[in-house]
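Revision sheet: structure tokens.
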Amino acid sequence: MDARVKGQISERKAILKFIEKGFNVYEPVSDSDEIDFVVEKNNNYFRIQTKTAYYSKDQKVWRCVVLGSGHREYAKDAFDYFAIIVPESDDLYIIPKDKVTMKNISILRDREFHAADKWKNTRTLHVKDYLNNFNLS
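Predicted:
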């Protein structure tokens, strides 16, 4: 399946999850490379950039590249949250953009980090706290 189609599917899944949690969802009229959609709840608005995780067999983790098209970094104030979908499980990780300081995020769904992963800890965001993190502020 084409990467653009995978991205569109992930975006729709994320939108549905926000709607199920009582958010209003607004989508841009024209394609935006920075914002996929905006969510609103209790008169608070948040700009969302959706990403799709992929499974890395050699590292045995789900990975997500948090760069824009052409592998460029997003502008500092382009949006508020990454919404990362793990396609196998439809897990949704909602991570504040300012918490993401690297270009890749690793997601361990079936195990904790252990000693063999120690070298990764400096480059890996521990995302467990962000699973279904609908408490946006």
